[in-house]
Amino acid sequence: MHQKIEERPPYARPIPAPPVVQRVLRGALLAAIDAGWTTRIPLETHLIVCGFPRSGTTLLSLMLQVAYPNAKSFSKELAAIYAAYLVDRNHSLLISKRPNDIFCIDEIRLLYSRRRPSVRFVLTTRDPRAVLTSRHPATPDDYYVEARRWQAIYALVRANAHRDDCHIVRFEDLVTRVNQLQADVASFIGIQPQRQFDRFQEFIPEGFQQTALNGLRALDSGVVNKWREPLHQNRIRSLLREIPTLPEALIELGYESDEDWIRGYLT
């Protein structure tokens, strides 16, 4: 069960929907569009990319926009609850990306339960040690994801992983098995792509915000184990104290088969 809104940290607070009058007016127009009563193309699916920060959400969003060029998408992060009320669309597929939408997943489900289009969530995951030792260009001198935030997202991913409207995408597959990942995502949303995911460097949408990518480059499997670098040893030791269940989570997520790996961090 979600915490009360006032108790949530800033990153977990839901983005407010438009004011009531705007919701009513926009909702009526969108209902007419999606019922086929206008000349616009009805929306069939809203695909939402969310999950752990630093787990490939920006890269996956770029791949999706390249693969589905006729979809309504955005050059930067946009809250799904806001995208759901945009009337400037003439598309059967709507793609939005915002990692923190994982905290609004129930509110988004409720919204679409009253509408004709379906909603689908792609939940991105990554080795927790990689997520928790990753840096972001906005905070280059500090680790980007705090332990508390990781734990909150992990609980929600676990709670939703087996829901019919959710599909897990592992960052490791994104950079090592992209063709199979593309096939899995296409099957999940029921729409075949027009381009391959791995052509993302050739067809970058105009204005697409690439900041979180730390530079656009070819897929590199070498980033998978960067958390093992010596400069992160103290961070890993600290995390083992802050998140006592981390070794257990790594086994559950399939990144380790036992807890032997922690021996190198106990000294």
Structure, explained:
The chain is of the alpha/beta class and 267 residues long. It has a single domain, classed as P-loop containing nucleotide triphosphate hydrolases (Rossmann fold). It has 10 helices and 4 strands, in the order αβααβαβααβαααα. Strands 2-1-3-4 form a 4-stranded parallel beta sheet, with helices on both faces. The longest helix has 15 residues. The radius of gyration is 19 Å and the shape is globular. The N terminus is likely disordered.
Q: How are the strands of the largest sheet arranged? A: 2-1-3-4
| Unreliable stretches | 1-6
CATH topology title: Rossmann fold
CATH class: Alpha Beta
Characterize the main sheet: 4 strands, parallel
- Looking at the structure, what is the overall shape? globular
Radius of gyration, in angstroms, nearest whole number: 19 Å
The helical percent reads 25-40%
Q: What's the number of domains? A: 1
How many β-strands, per DSSP? 4
Number of helices: 10
Mean pLDDT: 90
Order of helical and strand elements: HEHHEHEHHEHHHH
Estimated structural class: alpha/beta
Characteristic key phrases:
four-stranded parallel beta sheet; alpha/beta; 267 residues; Rossmann fold; 4 strands; 10 helices
